[in-house]
Amino acid sequence: MTSTNQYPDLLSEVRAFRAQYPEVRYIDLICLDIPGHFYGKRYPVEMVEKVAAGSPLKVPQNCVLLGTQGGLYPIGDYCFNDGDPDAPRRLIPGTLKPVRWEKEPLGQMLISSDGTEAPIEFEPREVLARVLQRLEKRGIRPVVAFELEFYLFDRKLKDGLPAFPRDPLCEDEDDQPNMHIERLSRFSNVLHEMVEAANEQGVAANVITAELGPGQFEINFGHCDDGLKAADWAALFCRSTRGVALKHGHRASFMSKPYLHAPGSGMHVHVSLYDREGNNLLAGNSQRALRHAVAGCLDLLPHCMPIFAANHNAFRRYGAMVNAASRASWGFEDRDACIRIPESDGRNLRIEHRLAGADANPYLVLAAILTGMEHGLDAGREPIASLNEDRTSGIEFPKDMLTAVTAMRSHSVVNEGLGSEFVMVYCENKRQEYLDFMNEVSAREYRWYM
Question: pTM for the complete prediction?
Fold first, then answer.
């Protein structure tokens, strides 16, 4: 792997940023943890320049293991048994950008342990990097595009519960679930700035859609032939979108199922595979490789559910009335399927993996999808019947976290494809977080049983 000081353009990137934004005094150096939250440190800009010139950058290794609420769980030899050691990180070239949603001038830059002399095996970006390196050795290059749905809420909670966002012009609640274009006009100020802020971060955000839920929207990204960058875009988009929403008096949330009566929010991932000559591998030989890739994804899907449904709430999304599968399935132009094959020409033939919740970790979601596709290409099996052929076709998958982590922990292909150390750490993190979440007596429990 390549160390930080071997990137000749990194120092010039920091110096060019300082020249363009002389008012920026601090840079947030950020990295995604296992639950999909950013952690890191706020560095004076001159110290970032020193790091770019070769000074070491270290952050505690166990930051990657933080739970959703920021706490640590005893996992194997980590956390409470290892002395909480520091681990090297590197600056990711091309990610130093200004932040527009803070009150004071600020910059941010992604960091990672992947590409260092001692990468952290369970860091999400490193997990994806290993999968991509394995595919690259086989002459396979994925092209990826994420789509993320999210909800806007009023900035103030009502008795701890979210409230519909209000139209800035007439103060009406956005309580009419539909896809009318007028909803984009009513919330155009915040939505347009979300796209602009994402573009400033280097994210190719483009199409905006008013989704079916009250206050629900979707913003698409361009297709990217760098899998790590595509996942970076999804992670950075979530951060900037939350910041811009607060600036406009709203909360933005990627929570999978905020309302039981309304559609959940998904992370849809479009993936095509190309060889070294630029040929779409999925399109050749009467789309045989496409079917094999679909079969592999369906085979591993029940064993990757802790990644696709990353928390207790995320499992509520499955089996809903609108475009949310309850079994692993596939189909052509079918939004009820977990794996949809959009209509396209041979050059752009791809799968659309629709199962993950919007609050899943994009690095891990993409790593799991690519591992499934690779498994399918190797196994060479035909998939189950498509939904176009049989509306009842499908494979059962776990619907709760404890069952899901058991299915993931013991699966040999998942362990080999994503790394056994990562699988152990991830499953134990999710298991303990679920038990921690359930360790509370709710008001409803008293009403029912007291």
Answer: 0.94
